[in-house]
Amino acid sequence: MQIQVVKSKIHRVKVTGADLNYIGSITIDEALMEASNLVEGEKVAIVNINNGERLETYVIKGNRNSGEITLNGPAARKVQKGDIIIVIAYGIIDFEEAKTFKPALVFPNENDNSLT
């Protein structure tokens, strides 16, 4: 049997922009992507702590160490610049493997989205 588990999580990161006229997705600082084991194009769930909105989209790589977290396209209607969000990616793995699997969890600085 296989089950879905949390694979990656960026916990409490500040939205730096919302671009309604972009095609769609979330742009994430490349350093945050690497630390949380996310890859470009990966499906993610977004949870907005400020208003309770939940949505799904995919990741686009942002400039390294820029702190960028931008919701693009229709997702821009669900967030505002300055909102605090959680970015979650799930994976499907074998049930027995899930018992010992450890997700990549990142807790950036909420002021500037840095890893320090």
Structural class: mainly beta
Give the mean pLDDT. Answer: 96
Quaternary state reads single chain
Give the overall silhouette.
Answer: globular
The run of helices and strands is EEEHEEEEHE
- What fraction of the residues are assigned to beta strands by DSSP? over 45%
Helix coverage percent of residues? under 10%
Number of helix segments? Answer: 2
Strand elements, count: 8
- Mind describing the biggest β-sheet? 8 strands, mixed
Radius of gyration: 14 Å
Uncertain ranges: none
Subcellular location: Cytoplasm
Pathway: Cofactor biosynthesis; (R)-pantothenate biosynthesis; beta-alanine from L-aspartate: step 1/1
Function: Catalyzes the pyruvoyl-dependent decarboxylation of aspartate to produce beta-alanine.
Cofactor: pyruvate
Describe the protein's topology.
Elements: E1 2-14, E2 17-19, E3 25-29, H1 30-35, E4 43-48, E5 54-62, E6 69-72, E7 84-94, H2 95-98, E8 104-106
Parallel strand pairs: 1-8, 2-6, 3-5
Antiparallel strand pairs: 1-7, 3-6, 4-5, 4-7
Function: Catalyzes the pyruvoyl-dependent decarboxylation of aspartate to produce beta-alanine.
Subunit structure: Heterooctamer of four alpha and four beta subunits.
Family: Belongs to the PanD family.
